[in-house]
Write a structure and sequence with these properties.
The complex is a heterodimer of chains A (335) and B (302). With 335 residues, chain A is α/β, with parallel strands linked by helices. Helices cover 35% and strands 19% of the residues of chain A. Chain A folds into two domains: 3-165, Thiamin diphosphate (ThDP)-binding fold, Pyr/PP domains (Rossmann fold, 3-Layer(aba) Sandwich); 180-327, 3-Layer(aba) Sandwich (Rossmann fold). Chain A has helices at 7-16, 36-41, 53-65, 76-80, 84-92, 120-125, 138-143, 145-150, 196-208, 231-236, 253-264, 285-291, 296-307, 315-319, and strands at 3-5, 22-26, 46-48, 69-75, 99-103, 131-134, 155-158, 163-165, 180-183, 188-192, 214-218, 221-223, 241-248, 270-275. Chain A is globular and about 60 Å long. Chain B has 302 residues and is an alpha/beta fold. The radius of gyration of chain B is 18 Å and the shape is globular. The chains are: A alpha/beta (335), B alpha/beta (302). The A-B interface holds A 44, 47-50, 52, 54-55, 57-68, 70, 85-86, 89-90, 93-95, 128-129, 152-153 and B 67-70, 134, 140-142, 145, 147-149, 151-160, 162-163, 181-182, 185-186, 188-189, 192-193.
Chain lengths: 335, 302
């Protein structure tokens, strides 16, 4: 599996070259949100706002009203917690084309609860006019910007930085409203998002080798969620649904799927892996995913619990599972 | 302002107070004090200071078009009442939407809104809302959630600088908003980005919902506080047209300008003085009190 570094930093510079209407807004986290290369390339389109996120979001609204497309970059918590009123009233209410790149989703930082956006999807999803994307790999990160721009209104992006794996074929870009189908099966329908997809892929591969049949989707458009595409699969699943998210299980992916199932009248059990109504704390990503139960091993244990099967898979086994790049040899549209 | 311009503005200000008084009586309550304290500044802005695009004839406010969204193609802001946008024209952003009634009256007095517009005030399905919103006459950003409009105006001002437009951005602020953190973030931003195309009028009437500001939460000395944030600050008496109108005609010097309009919450309606320190919303406490205001309206000399 290929690991890429500073994907957004490089991609943004190339992408923004012929888009003079785009401005990047920073709140003193320029290197930390990978916009330093943009600043160097287009200094006149880089707006430094200082540590003042409430003002930054409202300023972005004003810029958007004048025809610019502000690309806000900061840690996610400072968008939806610090400046929620501004997000709701200056930006979302007026359906302005402000694009908000929120970094450090969930427990991807050892910075502790203050820096970990563990409830952002729940909060932002409640706002009318908001679209929510979440990146799960380098291909997602590289190919999200066009759909972000094409969306009429504000978009909140759960973004990844630093070293990111490439899970999906470079030539199969992110498509708004299309859940990526990663494997087909009838025992369980599995939904994963963001950094959980890499973990899920490892566990699924190991369990498939032991005979489990899993229908696995990677969800990167959280709002509006395309439930039509997946409801037949859920209805056909033998043991029901598992969701796996780097977020509290209240209001995120698990809730989104639950609501869609209830609305469609599909009656299956749903098991939600993620933060179980808890805040995070400062520790490594691996440690926290294990502690809060949404790593590959946690998925194996959950499937064992649901199916009553024992796979005999250890944590060490999962570490050695090799994930190949996922191609769309199974077309989602075929379903 | 020339003596003729001042006369014209004074007539408009008088009309604003009279209209809002009449409306407050008819509706058995209203934001009357805001009209008293701000009428002269609003009138000066609309008659002489701002360069706004023309309105062909007084506009009748259309019904509420529904909230903005990707599927609502009928949505509009109330900006049309301030004339068409154009690079050379100034913009007007009202921050405290509680001053809506005063602004509506001002739009009527300056020929931008049809007199019938006030009949729509606070009626279900109307765009002429009690606490105005961006679809209400004369407004064009989400205001009223105090502290946010000045930042949005700063975004507009920065955009206009980037587009090299000569038009300026006027913001009307209430003094209570100087208690809000975001307001100071905005001033910090405006001075860092040298937004000298911004001109802020603050209606310093010294009162807020709970009473006298110096008792609720003191904000003085405003002048030196704002200066230390990098603004060019002028102090004016709220009813002195020369003081109110001078600063916007000075050449820009890299700093945002602030005109502190020290005003009286019962200017032009002395009767209201007895309500001190509660001026935020006028309620008649008795029929006799209401009658005294009706007498005042009847004998109004304009």
């Amino acid at each position: 599996m290929e690991i890429l570094s500073r994907v957004h930093a490089k991609n943004l510079v190339e992408w923004a070259k012929n888009r003079p209407e785009t401005l990047v807004l920073s709140a003193d986290l320029t290197s930390s949100t990978e916009i330093d290369l943009f600043r160097a390339a287009y200094p006149s389109r880089f707006i430094s706002c200082g540590i003042a996120e409430q003002n930054m979001l409202s300023v972005a609204a004003g810029l958007a009203r004048e025809g610019f497309v502000p690309l806000i970059h900061t840690f996610a918590v400072f968008i939806y917690r610090r400046a929620f009123d501004q997000l709701a009233m200056s930006i979302a209410y007026s359906n302005l084309p402000v694009k908000l790149f929120g970094f450090l989703p969930g427990i991807t930082t050892p910075g502790g609860a203050t820096h970990q956006a563990t409830d952002d999807i729940a909060v932002v999803r409640a706002l009318p006019n908001m679209t929510i994307f979440e990146a799960g790999d380098a291909t997602d990160v590289e190919s999200m910007l066009d759909p972000v721009m094409e969306t009429n209104g504000p978009v909140y992006i759960r973004m990844l930085r630093g070293e990111i794996p490439r899970l999906f074929d470079k030539n199969e870009p992110f498509k708004k409203g299309v859940n990526r189908l990663l494997s087909r099966g009838r025992d369980i329908t599995l939904f994963s998002s963001g950094i959980c997809t890499e973990e899920a892929l490892k566990a699924v591969k190991a369990m498939q080798a032991k005979g489990l049949s899993v229908e696995h989707y990677h969800v990167s458009t959280l709002k509006p969620f395309n439930s039509k595409q997946v409801m037949d699969s859920i209805a056909a699943s033998k043991y029901g649904v598992i969701t796996m998210e780097n977020h509290t299980v209240i209001g995120g992916l698990g809730t989104i799927i639950s609501e869609a199932m209830a609305q469609a009248g599909v009656c299956k059990k749903i098991h939600k892996l993620g933060l179980q109504d808890k805040f995070g704390h400062g520790a490594s990503r691996e440690y926290l995913m294990k502690e809060y139960g949404f790593d590959a091993m946690a998925l194996v244990s959950k499937v064992e619990e649901i199916t009553g099967q024992k796979f005999g898979i250890s944590g060490e086994d999962l570490k050695t599972v090799k994930i190949e790049i996922m191609h769309k040899d199974i077309k989602a549209e075929d379903l | 302002m020339t003596p003729i311009e001042i006369e014209k503005a004074k007539r408009a200000a008088d009309g604003i107070r009279k209209r809002v008084l009449a409306h407050t009586i008819t509706n058995n309550g209203g934001y009357l004090s805001q009209a008293c304290s701000s009428a002269d500044a609003l009138a000066a802005l609309y008659t002489s200071i701002m360069k706004l695009g023309p309105v062909e004839k007084p506009l009748v406010p259309p019904p509420f078009p529904g909230v903005p969204g990707p599927l609502n193609n009928n949505y509009f802001t109330g900006g049309a009442f301030n004339g068409p946008h154009g690079p050379e024209y100034d913009r007007f952003i009202l921050s405290p939407a509680h001053y809506a009634l005063a602004l509506y009256a001002c739009l009527i007095e300056t020929g931008r809104m049809d007199e019938s517009g006030l009949d729509h005030f606070n009626k279900d399905g109307s765009s002429v809302e009690m606490i105005g919103a961006e679809h209400s006459p004369g407004m064009e950003v989400t205001n009223g959630t105090l502290g946010q409009a000045i930042s949005q105006a700063a975004g507009i001002a920065l955009a206009r600088k980037l587009k090299k437009e000569p038009g300026r951005v006027f913001v009307f602020l209430s003094d209570g908003e100087l208690q809000i953190g975001q307001t100071w973030e905005a001033f910090q931003f405006m001075s860092h980005w040298k937004l000298d195309n911004m001109i802020i009028y603050v209606d310093v009437n010294g009162y807020q919902c709970d009473g006298k500001m110096e008792n609720v939460m003191n904000i003085e000395p405003i002048n030196s506080r704002l200066e230390s944030f990098g603004a060019r600050v002028f102090t004016a008496s709220g009813n002195n047209y020369k003081e109110l109108s001078g600063p916007p005609f000075l050449p820009a010097d890299g700093r945002p300008s602030v005109i502190l309009s020290y005003s009286c919450p019962y200017e032009g309606i002395e009767l209201m003085k007895q309500n001190a320190p509660k001026f935020h919303y006028m309620r008649f406490k008795s029929e006799d009190e209401k009658k005294s205001y009706m007498e005042l309206l009847k004998s109004w000399k304009s």
